[in-house]
């Protein structure tokens, strides 16, 4: 068995130059621009009709905030190869003040909620 060939085949199915499998993104760390870890990607919200990722929902680290989720517009994230994770132009305080919800109280991702989330990130 050739480990390099197996690894290349796995890479071809999970990641290309332009695409990456959601399996590889779930759990990926998200950092502030200063390199502070903010949390990790818990899941995506994808448009049913256009198939575009609208939000990466961040699970914020910390003992008392494990069950709190922060939808980040996908366009707000940039992959940082040095960190092997995504970076976002937020610090921890700005993230804490952004739209969020607790486990079991998921929002209705409708146009009003979309405006609320986008408005927060556009207005910074």
CATH architecture: Roll
Strand pairing plus helix content: what structural class? alpha+beta
Q: How many E-type strands?
A: 7
Run of helices and strands = HHEEEEEEHEH
Strand arrangement, major sheet: 5-6-1-2-3-4-7
What is the CATH class?
Answer: Mainly Beta
Number of domains: 1
Mean of residue pLDDT values: 83
CATH topology: SH3 type barrels
Notes on the protein architecture:
With 124 residues, the protein is of the alpha+beta class. It has a single domain, classed as SH3 type barrels, CATH 2.30.30.240. 27% of the residues lie in helices and 31% in strands. The protein contains 4 helices and 7 strands; from the N terminus they run H-H-E-E-E-E-E-E-H-E-H. Strands 5-6-1-2-3-4-7 form a 7-stranded mixed beta sheet. The longest helix is centred in the N-terminal third of the chain and has 12 residues. It is globular and about 35 Å long. It starts with a helix and ends with a helix.
